[in-house]
Specification:
Blueprint lengths: L1 E3 L8 E4 L2 E11 L7 E8 L5 E7 L3 E4 L3 E11 L2 E6 L5 E5 L15 E7 L2 E6 L3 E9 L13 E5 L4 E4 L8 E5 L4 E5 L3
Antiparallel strand pairs: 1-6, 2-3, 2-6, 3-4, 4-5, 7-8, 7-10, 8-9, 10-11, 12-13, 12-15, 13-14, 15-16
Length: 188
């Protein structure tokens, strides 16, 4: 299936330069001059080599169709992640670096989608959003307007995120796992 270069997201598997690549990281760049593009960091499925590539919105790239199955995350052991198939109870072990920068968002018991190509697991898709607690938030600076100012905060998994001024330490928030952005305060 062909997709536009700016529609590439972390976790996608692409057929590029006659090889299979898992997208590790993307950054949408809109320079002052010229068209927007997506800076994409990819990792080869077979040998793990990395490649940085720019894809413009006018470019098309082949997204590989993969077999998708739901697995439950059981536990991490050194650099290995253990998952169990939801229906057959079969367990698989994958290297922790398969998640890249999204690893801190993996939670015990979380249901993930493991994508396989010709029977080999090659990527793991986390839920789009997760709920986490703020363990440290900077105080509000007086005089800042609420609409445009965000402040840094530390999540319980050790990841920093920018949050609105009204969010405080101890609040639970919903975070987008793809781009690590604040979505909303969690409804308890």
């Amino acid at each position: 299936m062909k997709i536009d270069g700016v529609a590439i997201r972390p976790g996608n598997v692409l057929q590029h330069k006659d090889r299979l690549w898992v997208v590790v990281k993307t950054q949408h760049v809109k320079p002052g001059k010229g068209g927007a593009f997506n800076q994409v960091e990819m990792k080869d499925v077979k040998d793990g080599t990395k490649l940085n590539e720019r894809f413009r919105s006018s470019e098309q790239v082949e997204r590989v169709r993969l077999e998708q199955m739901d697995y439950q995350f059981l536990f991490a052991d050194d650099d290995l992640l253990h998952f169990m198939h939801q229906e057959s109870y079969e367990q698989i072990t994958l290297p922790a670096d398969i998640l890249g920068e999204r690893l801190p968002f993996l939670q015990d018991g979380m249901t993930v989608v493991v994508e396989s190509y010709e029977g080999d697991p090659i990527s793991v898709e986390l839920p789009e959003q997760v709920t986490l607690e703020i363990v440290e938030a900077d105080p509000v600076v007086k005089g800042q307007t609420v609409s445009s100012s965000y402040k840094p905060a530390m999540l319980e998994n050790g990841v920093r995120v920018m949050v609105p001024p009204f969010v405080e330490t101890g609040n639970r928030i919903v975070v987008n796992t793809a781009d690590v952005t604040y979505v909303e305060r969690a409804k308890d």
